[in-house]
Prior knowledge:
The structure is a single chain. By secondary structure, this protein is an alpha/beta fold. It has one domain (2-230): TIM Barrel (Alpha-Beta Barrel). The protein has helices at 19-31, 52-69, 117-126, 140-144, 150-154, 163-166, 171-184, 205-215, 217-224, 226-232; strands at residues 2-6, 36-43, 74-82, 103-107, 130-134, 158-162, 189-191. It has a seven-stranded parallel beta sheet, sandwiched between helices. The two termini are 13 Å apart. The structure holds fe (ii) ion (FE2). Fe (ii) ion (FE2) binds at residues 5, 7, 80, 193.
Amino acid sequence: MIDIHCHILPGLDDGARTMDEALSMARIAAADGIQRIVASAHITPGVYDNSPDGIVSAAGVFDDRLKEEGIPVRIIPGADVRMTPEMIGNDGSYLRINRDTPYLLFEFPHGLIPPGSDRLVAALRGRGLVPVITHPERNLELQRHPEKLEAFVKMGCLVQITAMSLTGEFGPRALAVSERYLKDGWVDLIATDAHDTIKRPPILSRAVRRAEELVGAVAARAMVLETPERIVGPI
Ligand SMILES: [Fe+2]
């Protein structure tokens, strides 16, 4: 499997705090059958001011360390990009998945979908980019009005739900909305959005089993293998 969204790089955000913790996360991922991880540090202006170059270099250092340790997981640079007006017109303010692909992880603020989001997405699409909307099932406005996601699906965004939403650990609303989106055929990807080894570990398999019950084995597998592979490219 390939995990498209994971806060595994040590010290860059609220994910792994130390190299030891990051290595432990990678061991958990490997044991779960995850072979590649997009290390998607937060880029949230004023909160996590990570630069694309900084993430790329940290991802390279961590990937080398995994090789040294014999942990069979490869690291791909990416970023968890908070939706902000600065995204338009500033190529340096975000990092695409694996640097030069058209895909970028795109996070709405937790509480709402800001007015003008559709115009921002349209502008990104107009530049040939494909926003991957992260965990819409955890967004409070979409929990109240799940149908509001459709406009973004129609604009060509991909949709990523969080594995732990589908296993109920983000509460009944996130569970219900993720199930609904799966049944509606709006979900392209399942990712861990892992931050540590205990509360939010990098485990996909449990959610995949649940997705299989809802959409069948072929579609569920595509959400953690074929579709992420299309995004990150071959090894
Ligand atoms: Fe995230």
